[in-house]
Amino acid sequence: MTDITNTPTAEYETQLGDYFALLKPRVMQLVVFTAVVGMLAAPVSVHPVIGFASILFVAIGAGASGALNMWWDADIDAVMKRTVNRPIPAGKVQPREALALGVALSGMAVMMLALSANLLAAGMLLFTILFYAVFYTMWLKRATPQNIVIGGAAGAFPPVIGWIIATGSFSVEAWLMFALIFIWTPPHFWALALFMRSDYDDAKVPMLTVTHGRPATRRHILGYTVLLAFFAIATGFTAIGGYIYLSFAVVLNVLFLIGAYRIWQRDEEMAEADNYAVERKFFRLSLFYLFLHFGAILIEATLRPYGLGGW
């Protein structure tokens, strides 16, 4: 847990933007997008006002999780290059303010989602916040090299919540969208860890690159990418898939598999010689991977009422 003592100095007045940064807005964008796709891909239509309000509360819940994560992880954020400028280690926001913001927004988001949508959706949102803030952040992240594998589930729940907002129930299609994000998360972050290992070393975070070495990480990236390709393409043959989605999925997963195979073939001498160019390229592709898959699901859902989407 953080014991960081940085607080806003007398010369610095905390800005609204500093509090907003606690909510991890970039992560929130992915949460909102996948939740919207989950809601619109469902076979039940949602009134636009109810849908907008529900997604807003899901976004607030995601932001609350981000604030709680930054509160607890402020000590390791302070020693990692890519996180040192976050509001708490930078001394812009006090830790207790981040904690209060995260708790308050969590309670509001869950209660309001129960009112705007249904109790099951609100319960799933509460579970997601607790899973990310407590199970992952406070325990798994510092306890096991499988932290990102299990913790990735927290980021995979939004499309399930979106589906439940519309239908009030679970389905195979919702869990396939969950699987896309869940299985994508490890190779995405492990590729980053390959060329950012010193950060995790310095912070004493047991990332796979630190505990098992880079050769093992490269094997894991390939293994998870093969599994991901299976689920991604299989989704194309379900009620949320279709020719458009399947075309995207085949092309994207062929490229992803080629990238993972090239990473698996390399050793550290080769990687250092070109400044981890292959690993960086794979990581950049992974940034587009989810957006394009879920974008294709959204296209199918948009065209389906006109008899153009799906099978």
UniProtKB/TrEMBL annotation:
Its EC number is 2.5.1.141. It is an enzyme of class 2 (transferase). Keywords: Cell membrane, Heme biosynthesis, Membrane, Transferase, Transmembrane, Transmembrane helix. Pathway: Porphyrin-containing compound metabolism; heme O biosynthesis; heme O from protoheme: step 1/1. GO terms for cellular component: plasma membrane. NCBIfam families: cyoE_ctaB (TIGR01473), PRK04375.1-2 (NF003349). This is Protoheme IX farnesyltransferase. It comes from Sulfitobacter geojensis. The lineage of its organism: Bacteria, Pseudomonadati, Pseudomonadota, Alphaproteobacteria, Rhodobacterales. The gene is ctaB.
